[in-house]
TrEMBL record:
Keywords: Cell membrane, Electron transport, FAD, Flavoprotein, Membrane, Oxidoreductase, Transport. One of its GO terms (molecular function) is succinate dehydrogenase (quinone) activity. It is a peripheral membrane protein. It comes from Pseudarcicella hirudinis. The keyword Transport applies. NCBIfam families: PRK07573.1, sdhA_Bsu. This is succinate dehydrogenase. It catalyses: a quinone + succinate = fumarate + a quinol. Belongs to the FAD-dependent oxidoreductase 2 family. FRD/SDH subfamily. It comes from the Bacteria. GO terms for biological process: anaerobic respiration.
Amino acid sequence: MSTKLDAKIPDGVLAEKWTKYRSTVPLVNPANKRSLEIIVIGTGLAGASAAASLAELGYKVKVFCFQDSPRRAHSIAAQGGINAAKNYQNDGDSIYRLFYDTIKGGDYRAREANVHRLSEVSGSIIDQCVAQGVPFAREYGGLLSNRSFGGTQVQRTFYAAGQTGQQLLLGAYSALQRQVGMGTVELCTRHEMMEVVMVDGKARGIIARDLISGKLERHFGHAVLICSGGYGNVFYLSTNAMGSNVTAAWKAHKKGAFFGNPCYTQIHPTCIPVSGDHQSKLTLMSESLRNDGRIWVPKKKDDNRKANEIPEDERDYYLERRYPAFGNLVPRDIASRAAKERCDAGYGVGTSKMAVYLDYAAAIIRYGKGEANKRSIHSPSDEEIQIMGKEVVKEKYGNLFDMYKQITGEDPYEVPMRIYPAVHYTMGGLWVDYNLMTTIPGLYSLGEANFSDHGANRLGASALMQGLADGYFVIPYTIGSYLANEIRTKAISTDAPEFVAAEKNVQETIDKLMSIKGTKSVDHFHKKLGKIMWDKCGMARNEKGLKEAIVEIQALRKEFWSDVRVTGDADEFNPELEKAGRVADFLELGELMCVDALNRNESCGGHFREEYQTEEGEAKRDDENYAYVAAWEYKGDSQFELHKEELVYENIKIAQRSYK
């Protein structure tokens, strides 16, 4: 097993690494910054914050997104909140506790130094966003409000109703547009990155496709930042926007950037259940709903009574029963598996029997009584309690309740929501070192596109934190250590042979896709791939299923390249061609995910191998053999070589994960 990985973690005490690093990192003087060009792929929280911050520092920035506006990046879909160790509640929070919760939540499969840095900068993110005008919820006295989230016993999640991601993105977008207005950022909307251009072993630009005209373009940059999000859509049905894809990261991978932990997929426990074959995506109900909602199933198998007809003593609040210390606030992987176990055992609810209840009745009464006290209403009627309780819930979670009603036709204020786990976030991604650089010099990866901070399971409210930490507070420092050595590199002409060859390669792939003229749509293949992935590399995996999946994906890929039908032309606006390119990448990534899952003979976080579980059905890690990041090198034509980054824990005692 070769290892070519150097994580470049600074020496010294954990709590001082980042401070010391920032004080000693090489800098680029302002005059030199003006002649250095940086390309940013993606305009979500990571991309927009990085582009705005780097332009503010004086670099020339070019930013690309496939949407018609950066505001449409999938970061807007994040609902519940963003973590920060401010300890406003005085409930025992600290930078160390946020660090510890994140490492434990990731099932001891994350890199200590990166996670500690994330915890350190978390407080600054909130200050930055408040300064930008992000309308975080506030307490009566004007202080920022916090709510609790899964995997923690403190309240540290800042939020803006159920649309935190959208509000944070508007903050980053404002900062980005300010730089666009000043001419320091060139914004290219409706463009998709098709290839990384390498010159003398370094990333020096990209080939992009103008999605309106279909024209291919060459763009030079001294460095390239991939901020293109996660790859959950490999499963077809997921909480991701339909446009979310792996193409930018995968093209980088095929050029030499190692892919870290591809099998680590997060299944979110609170999604609206699948309603039929017509669906193309799933809708998330924020994890923040588990704060006040209680999750239960009937104690009787195949109980067909309506939820409100089932008396209290015939309900199984299974999370509270199994995990008394954390109750409904166990981390996502644990809550998801517990829901699957109950449904598989015959206790599921709804027509499909693949759902559990999320019930707000008790919370409405509790809040109603609290309001009555506040308003000095002594001995209020049940009806008054209900009315006041619903008002409080509406203020905290109203838009989520409205969304549920719109989609299901049921009123969650009156009947419990039905929820079931679904594919959400991907903890795997491009392998990066402490500087966020991939194994390709000059190519960086930020936010969900990299693997770095969450181990085998992401704690809720950490995605927004990581995206903004990487963009606002990490990359502005770390990129300097690379660019300080590039100030003599003049802009390379896009007529250089490397650019010509890269564009030719992209054109050949497009021509090939257009020329197949098969009989089946792109969606046909995507759905088939999704089913294989969900059934055999989803919430539970086993050796037999994974081996079958690899063979099935290889056959499906072969069929795709001989029988896919892409309508329209290449030199025009063509969403079918866009989709075809992305599904072609998913058909390769899916196989690597199964290879990675088959190679990891343990259960940890979101990776649950059925052969490796405790007697109580919990994940059973193998720290002796698998305490490493799996970084895969592309060797061409379905061949991947494994490199290991050993994980060393000097500040945390590795323990069996328990939320009981």
